[in-house]
Amino acid sequence: MPCMAHLLGVASLVLGEAGWVPCEVTEDMAVAALLHDAVEDEGGWPRLRDIEAKFGSAVAKIVEGCSDSFEEDSAKKASWEERKRAYVERLWNEPEGTLLVSAADKLYNARAILEDYRRIGPEVWKRFQRGRDEQLFYFNELIKVFRAKCPDWRIVQEFERTVRELERISSEESR
Amino acid sequence: MPCMAHLLGVASLVLGEAGWVPCEVTEDMAVAALLHDAVEDEGGWPRLRDIEAKFGSAVAKIVEGCSDSFEEDSAKKASWEERKRAYVERLWNEPEGTLLVSAADKLYNARAILEDYRRIGPEVWKRFQRGRDEQLFYFNELIKVFRAKCPDWRIVQEFERTVRELERISSEESR
After folding, report:
1. What is the DSSP string of chain A?
2. pLDDT > 90: percent of chain A
3. Are the beta carbons of B2 and A15 separated by less than 8 Å?
4. CB-based contacts of A131, cutoff 8 Å, min separation 6
5. By a Cβ cutoff of 8 Å, what residues of chain A touch chain B?
6. In the predicted structure, residue B106 carries a pLDDT above the cut 50
7. What average pLDDT does the segment A142-147 reach?
């Protein structure tokens, strides 16, 4: 259920930016949003090839850009730090469609953490492989890329606003 | 596109409340979220009967509770005020599933207005049949029902927080 909520939510955010991004928001971007976790969560490269065969190379390119692991065997995944660093580095060279799906993905996640934080506080970090400081560091690295590449996008500003609020509301923790 | 973004977004919000509402979040609720505008936007009662035949009475009951008009001919719809008043009045007697889809629908709308307001300011009200004060009055009438019937729900608190922020950001207008 949380997974389905996430995929529909990211697709909704992508479609909702029509008219607010300089490029056309295409059906390929919406389909890629629905599939964006399929490669890193289960299936790796073979799954990406499936997606290319079934949905075309435009969808597959976006899904590739939004994946932080291509390992078929999830036990062989690189460390959290390595995967996130590689994701951010690659994002610098991605086109608008991938940036849009990525921003929607990260905005959904930041909002979900913020809403849960309001209810359960620091407990929320236990759901992740890393704690508050690492999560916020990762979000801020992403903000650097979005700010450099598409600073005027509404969804980028909403992502930054959400991360700032998450930093503020959890700031007692870092003292 | 905005319509599809809305329907996926409401379904996502409904699924995302699993574990945060006292009832089970069912597939019927998610399907009803995807269909919640079908009756009031196009089709009226005959469309509701279609939905009942295809998706069952549980889905149809929720869609009915989330509709503010059942006129087949949209030229014959009652006034905005009458439709909204009837919707709010009926909501007092609706069960949890309908309250959840309704809260998700209204939260999506309030967030969309707030985000657009941040970009284009008071221009945003021109998209609707009524202006700032009427829209905020309607949201506040809904908040009264949600507060009385399900005050502890996370989505209800997020809806109220969003409406308060929309009131604050647009407060200059009412002077």
Report:
1. -HHHHHHHHHHHHHHHTTTTSSS---HHHHHHHHHTTHHHHTTHHHHHHHHHHHH-HHHHHHHHHT-S---SSGGGPPPHHHHHHHHHHHHTT--HHHHHHHHHHHHHHHHHHHHHHHHHGGGGGGGSSS-HHHHHHHHHHHHHHHHHH-TT-HHHHHHHHHHHHHHHHTGGGG-
2. 90
3. yes
4. A125
5. 1-2, 4-6, 8-9, 11-16, 18, 20, 25, 30, 112, 115, 118-119, 154, 157-158
6. yes
7. 98
In 10 A of CB B167, how many CB atoms? Answer: 14
Mean pLDDT over each residue of chain B, to the nearest integer: 95
Q: Give yes or no for residue B175 having a pLDDT over 70.
A: no
Gap between the Cα atoms of B8 and A9, Å rounded? 7
DSSP secondary structure string, B96-119? HHHHHHHHHHHHHHHHHHHHHHHH
Contact residues, chain B, for A30 at CB < 8 Å: 4
CB atoms within 10 A of CB A51: 23
As a whole number of angstroms, the distance between CA A128 and CA A99 comes to 23
What ipTM is given for this predicted complex?
Answer: 0.88
